[in-house]
Amino acid sequence: MNPISSVEELEALIGHPLDRVRQKVRTSLSDFDRQWLAASPFCVISTTDAQGRVDASPKGDPAGFIQVLDEHTIAIPERPGNKLAFGFHNILENPNVGILSVVPGRTDTLRINGTAQIVRDADFFELMIVKGHRPRAAVVVAVDEVFTHCGKAFMRSGLWQPETWDPDGLPSIAMLSKTYTQPETPLEDLESYYGPSYAERMYRE
Q1: What pLDDT, on a 0 to 100 scale, did the predictor assign at position 35?
Q2: pLDDT per position as a tens digit, 12-23
Q3: DSSP state, 177?
């Protein structure tokens, strides 16, 4: 390997951004950003703990689940999960977060960087009710930077092209669970657990 160890080496390799690229980074949410978030059903939140260890956590709900509280603030609901809460632990140690918001079929993405806090309740929780269930908490983010990211990564990967998909080419979640976490549980029981009823329980468990 031939590692890069300085900013000068990095810039010599990749070059410098054009002025118009630098200027796309904004400090508040525009009307387009609001429209984007209203259409987005999925995002990834990146966090870092006090030692610099990183976590990237997917979040998803019906489109518009990320609430825009004002031009400088958004809120992301937290639903029942595995209770590891790596990202939440990180936010308590280091509030800096990065968010990548995705709209299915679009190759561009919306990136938001800011500082986060975890809240247990607020008036806007009423806007986050899904199937009769309020979120258990929410991540409120004070926006420092927001910008649209070009679609080259999605285009190169063919992410939205069904002909490139092969979901059955990997072990099922039931098989992974049996291999790594529940070897004593019969595979058919795990397949039943992760079957159609799994989606019905996901706002309750």
Answers
A1: 98
A2: 998 988 888 788
A3: H
Q: Residue 144 belongs to what H/E stretch?
A: strand 137-149
Q: Alpha-carbon torsion 205, 78, 54, 166, what sign? A: positive
Which of 79, 67, 85 shows the shortest CA–CA distance to 130?
A: 79
Q: Which token pair is 23?
A: 């200027």
| Residues 83-121: tens digit of each pLDDT | 889 999 999 999 999 999 999 999 999 999 999 999 999
Whole-number Å distance between alpha carbons of 80 and 96: 23
Neighbours of 49 (CB within 10 A): 16
C-alpha 120/C-alpha 75 separation (Å) is 12
Which strands form 42-48's sheet, in the order they lie side by side? Answer: 54-60, 42-48, 96-102, 109-119, 137-149, 73-78, 67-70
CA 4 – CA 12 distance, rounded (Å): 10
Model pLDDT, residue 18: 81
**Does the structure show a pLDDT above 90 at 197?**
no
Token pair 């070059």: residue: 15
